[in-house]
Amino acid sequence: MKLWINDNNSITAKVERKDGNYFANGSIFLQAETNKSLPESRIECVSNDDAINIYSKTLISTETLDNINKKWSDDLLTIYGLYEHNDQYAWVGPIKIKRQVKYTAGNLLVAIYPKEAVHANASWKYEIPGQQNVWSPWYKSGDEVAGIKEGLVRISFSDISNRWMTPKDKYVHIKNGELTMTEELYISKLSSIHGIIVPQEAIDAGATWSAWNTTINKPTGPYHSGSTITGFPPGETTVEFLPIPGWSASPSVQTIVVKANEATIVTGLYCKDKPYKPQNVVATQGMYVDKVVITWDKVSCINRYNIYRSTLSTPKPEDLIVKNYALNRFEDKDSAPGKEYFYRIQAVNEKQ
């Protein structure tokens, strides 16, 4: 017997004699899970099951594999071919069909920094989706792993020595057919300074930092955001976030205390001299009878906004209705019903 799975998930089976003789007048049919002639186990087929002086018989199931047998034992379906003639029967098989859960998958790449931690054998692994506390092998920084089931995946990082702080577990979302990339940073436990700069736009604009080394009595640097610099003796020192055009660090100089055998983390916040325009400005339309409610996203480093209202699409300076407003939600109760208004929200800082 030969068996094929059709495009519509039905099956086609060909039952034939190999001894050169005909099948005498009788019946040929397929059964699931047993080679005994049991009507309740028979698989309904399109073709007639009568066998009259033929060498072979082709049978095509009328049902799909999912409906042929409701109970798959260990995800296996066993198919037999049976031939009945008078009070006797013969069988052939079994042919076993195994099914597997179909799922979508993507790839994952994890980069580890700094290179000193990578050289110290820092590595990563991920928890197998759907199997709690079952983990993959360890992978090196930059390794790409394929075929990870789509969804939320937990990543863990190895302990490498007492010199390094092990990153906490993190979660990433794997998408079907896509490469998900993430990175993680090990921080040195030696007497060191770890400098962080925010926001990312300031980093892209070239923001860096330097630190005063009391051992050599002069500043060292500049360093990029995320750098961990060793060689600083324990005690008080200063860190400067260096100027870049169009931005100001707040504050630009910070006094820190470097601790023994530990990383001291310092963060520098850069603010644009000319603030970004508020994003996602939304005004209600017809929702309220006596007011219009305007909301917008907060702007980094900004806690004051000017609000303009005009019947023209481009408000003029004289259309200012509120100055130095502190929130990012405003209720305009002075607008006239039935009129169309245009609103403009302006972020304001000390330099304006």
TrEMBL record:
Superkingdom of the source species:
Bacteria
Domain named Fibronectin type-III is located at 277-352
State the name under which the record lists this protein: Fibronectin type-III domain-containing protein
Q: Please report the organism this UniProt entry assigns to the protein.
A: Candidatus Magnetoglobus multicellularis str. Araruama
